[in-house]
């Protein structure tokens, strides 16, 4: 019942019972219209055309994944909508993104290989290019899924430079902002009814745990089929712990299994050539459990790029424009400590 985020665009993947929450559904959310709203700063913000609205609705329609006679309805909860489709036996197709493909090609030869979905190659279907990945959920029964985006920032240095050079106003991001805090926009932003993407992304990082803890919960799907993306203000360790306890409620062995897997991931990162040579932006950890099993994978590499030649990053030093630090290990260390505490409480 869950799905991954896609190439081309970071974002999380959760397959969920379709349309549980109207604001998480498709077609009407501002997420779906994001690129359609992009306008030059001085121009008036246009409304999306009727066709674009229909197109977005169509792209969001959930699909049915079948594996070993089980059927899973899939709806993408986070990130760019409409990027996935059912794959072959036990795989999914994700829209092609060259940055992500380059990562997967290297990851298949790296010590991180056991911690990422297996990459099966490229495939063209109905004039659209996809990558084929193992569906991480096929071996779970009625899977519970949580997506956590890692790192202290969610935009790349390139994106920031591009945005500075050519600032564009986003009406959809203004709307998302006022839904959470109508007092946040400046008078000028209220007048324009639009904000720039870096402005939104930085604010979003600050109100959630991204800037303070180096990760944020993006979405959770529980075993009863309920789903939530309502974690934009989940900021403190205590709030994160409460969300994880709720996520694992009734699954007594999950916390310990997650804790052990987090330790393994931490150790593998220390040995990984891929990790030491890349800047990880917008990449997530996908947590999946059922009554028997619990596992974690690294997913979403559409904004993970090779570091400039001869540049080394610690993945935990503070970020300053130009130093490429991503804070990935800050997030992993904090998550490890959270799971350690929860594990100690559980025994
Ligand atoms: C989105 C989130 C995504 C980002 C997207 C944002 O905000 O920050 O990571 O996509 O930008 O709208 P939210 O989670 O609050 O909905 P990228 O990481 O691909 O930039 P977009 O609307 O330009 O796709």
Overall description:
Among the domains are: 144-155 and 209-346, Inositol polyphosphate kinase (D-amino Acid Aminotransferase, Chain A, domain 1); 163-206, no CATH class. Helices cover 33% and strands 20% of the residues. With 347 residues, it is an alpha+beta fold. α9 (254-271) runs antiparallel to α11 (328-346). The strands form 5 sheets. A 5-stranded antiparallel sheet has the order 11-10-8-13-14. Strands 4-5-7-6 form a 4-stranded antiparallel sheet, covered by helices on one side. The model is unreliable at 1-61 (pLDDT under 50). D-MYO-inositol-1,4,5-triphosphate binds next to α6.
Q: Top keywords for this entry?
A:
single chain, 347 residues, alpha+beta, D-amino Acid Aminotransferase, Chain A, domain 1, five-stranded antiparallel beta sheet, four-stranded antiparallel beta sheet, globular, binds D-MYO-inositol-1,4,5-triphosphate
């Amino acid at each position: 019942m869950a799905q991954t985020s896609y190439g081309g665009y970071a974002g999380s993947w959760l397959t969920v019972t379709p349309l549980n929450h109207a604001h998480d559904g498709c077609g009407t959310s501002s997420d779906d219209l994001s690129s359609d709203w992009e306008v030059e700063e001085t121009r008036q913000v246009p409304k999306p055309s009727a066709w674009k609205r229909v197109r977005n609705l169509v792209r969001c329609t959930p699909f049915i994944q079948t594996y070993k006679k089980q059927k899973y309805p899939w709806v993408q909860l986070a990130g760019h909508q409409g990027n996935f489709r059912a794959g072959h036996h036990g795989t999914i197709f994700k829209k092609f993104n060259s940055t992500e493909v380059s990562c997967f090609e290297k990851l298949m030869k790296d010590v991180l290989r056991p911690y990422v979905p297996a990459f099966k190659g490229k495939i063209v279907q109905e004039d659209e290019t996809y990558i084929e990945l193992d569906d991480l959920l096929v071996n779970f029964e009625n899977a519970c899924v949580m997506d956590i985006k890692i790192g202290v920032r969610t935009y790349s240095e390139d994106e920031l430079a591009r945005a500075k050079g050519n600032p564009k106003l986003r009406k959809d991001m203004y709307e998302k902002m006022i839904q959470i805090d109508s007092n946040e926009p400046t008078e000028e932003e209220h007048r324009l009814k639009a904000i720039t993407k870096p402005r939104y992304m930085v604010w979003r990082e600050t109100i959630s745990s991204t800037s303070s803890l180096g990760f944020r919960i993006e979405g959770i799907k529980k075993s009863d089929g309920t789903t939530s993306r309502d974690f934009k203000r989940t900021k403190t360790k205590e709030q994160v712990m409460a969300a994880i306890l709720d996520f694992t409620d009734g699954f007594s062995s999950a916390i310990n299994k997650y804790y052990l897997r987090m330790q393994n991931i931490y150790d593998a990162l220390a040995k990984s050539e891929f990790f030491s040579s890349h800047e990880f932006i917008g990449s997530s950890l996908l947590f999946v459990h059922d009554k028997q099993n619990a596992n974690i994978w690294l997913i979403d590499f559409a904004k993970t790029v090779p570091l400039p030649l001869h540049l080394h990053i610690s993945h935990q030093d503070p970020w300053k424009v130009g130093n490429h630090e991503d804070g990935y290990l800050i997030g992993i260390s904090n998550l490890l400590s959270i799971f350690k505490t929860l594990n100690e409480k559980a025994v």
